[in-house]
Amino acid sequence: MCFYLIFRIILFIFTVIMENELDHINLINTLNDKINHLEQKNAELTGQLQEKHYKLLYANQELDKLRRMLFSVKSERFKSNEYPLQLSIDFGFSSDKLPETEKEKVKEVIEYERTKNKPKSKTINTRQPIPAHLPREIIIIEPEEDLTGAIKIGVEITEVYEYVHGYLTVKSFHRNKYLFPRDEKPIVIADLPSLPIPKSNAGASLLAHITISKFFDHIPFFRLATIFGRDNIEISESTMNDWFKAMCLLLAILYDKLVWLIKQQDYLQADETPIRVQDRSKPGKTHTGYHWCYHSPVANLVCFDYQKGRGRDGPEKFLKDFRGTLQTDGYAGYLSFEKPGKIRLISCLVHIRRNFEISKDNDLERSTYVLKRIQVIYAIERECKEMNLSPDDIVKVRKENILPIMEELEKWFKENQNQVLPKSAIGKAINYALTFWEKQKRYMEDGRFMADNNLIENTIRPICVGKKNYLFAGNHQGAQNAAMIYSLLGTCKLNNVNPRAWLTDVLTRLPECKQSELEDLLPHKWKPLNINHPATELLIR
């Protein structure tokens, strides 16, 4: 009996201990579950916080970008005191002469002698002579004294500028009529000279003036009408619009010739810019069309082609017969143009550089490194241009000095790509550079190729300034007419041709021009018809 009692006591104690142990185990499991849950919740919250941090970082980048566009200086110039802008370049120098960030800076004293020009006096303000080609009104002023017996020993000449406001003149053609009573044609009269616009009272010089005013000086027709009105000359905006449309019909054959010449080139740069066009189907609203620009740096030709959208259909149609190298920015629509044996693409170094210039606020050290290396590339390119090297010599210089920098940058991009956030400014800059780096290196293969698309962006600038003044085109045909005029006047600018003189002369000669003579009227080949031609007066400088 005693043994049984002890056994029950021990069993009871064991049962209590086991129950406590089970409760303890259950408690531990519960706590572990709660810990795991809290860890998962913490990881989830950490991920959400990191995601919000990335979104905030991206939003701040976009905000900084917008602030810069609205309020900051638009210049992308990068100043570096580490590398000189001018490099001593000769055909025998190697890449070890290029500055390297890894090399230690060594201070040394350099002594040399130089001949210093005599400094100009700061007290004398030298006046530029008045150009000899300007018309002069000679006014003779005699002394008030009695000049009897005086001998003239010289003339003291003092010249001052005066401004005469531009004015219109009238060319009146008087054609005498003659009667021959006994002839089959009793009345004889001379033929009227060919006019740019038949049965119109607008001469070539006036048409050139209103066209240059709008598309070169950015003065819309309604402002021109106001200017004419101040001189009691009533020429309405609608009249000038009608004149302009008729003039474009005359110039269309010359524009087609320019387009044909552009397509014959083997190296072109391409870019596009939007233009607002009135949509008559939606009163009060405008349609966004695009002026596609094609520029030949070698032939100094530029052509604009209007398309209703930014799709690749327009450029594909324009470049259907083009064979050669096409340099563009990173717009995805250009990527499909590359076809073996037909079109080869080159990228733009400025667009690659621009991303690193923007990312300085995000990662100054990495951005500065890339900007300094690109600065060296441009210094070498500038030196080649100043030395007026031939294309073959430029290729040699590029392969010897620029290629090592390009390869170094490519290696650096790949090493740093996984060390930065993909959506950060520096991450986007590196990813963009790697995407187009192979196409960028192709520009070193030909000395005629440019490192960037800056030249074509300069040709687009007049459109950007102009559309801020005239706001929009009246319809799609008006936008195409604008593209035609920008093409012809842009080619004038590239070839340093006075656009007013050229257009006045061309509008005079084009009505009777032969098909075989059209190319001679394009700005890059144009010469005035004769020295007495009115347009020639505008060229005398």
Short description:
By secondary structure, the protein is an alpha/beta fold. Among the domains are: 204-342 and 453-541, no CATH class; 349-451, no CATH class. It has helices spanning 2-71, 204-215, 221-230, 237-264, 313-318, 349-358, 364-386, 391-416, 425-441, 454-470, 476-494, 499-509, 518-521, 534-537, and strands at 177-179, 187-189, 267-278, 286-296, 301-307, 324-327, 343-346.
Structure description:
With 541 residues, the protein is an alpha/beta fold. Among the domains are: 204-342 and 453-541, no CATH class; 349-451, no CATH class. Helix content is 48%, strand content 8%. The chain is built from 14 helices and 7 strands. The chain has helices spanning 2-71, 204-215, 221-230, 237-264, 313-318, 349-358, 364-386, 391-416, 425-441, 454-470, 476-494, 499-509, 518-521, 534-537; strands at residues 177-179, 187-189, 267-278, 286-296, 301-307, 324-327, 343-346. A 5-stranded mixed β-sheet has the order 5-4-3-6-7. Strands 1-2 form a two-stranded antiparallel ribbon. A hairpin with a 7-residue loop joins strand 3 and strand 4 (286-296). Helix 7 (364-386) packs antiparallel against helix 8 (391-416). The N and C termini lie far apart (139 Å). Residues 83-87, 93-105 and 531-541 have low confidence and may be disordered.
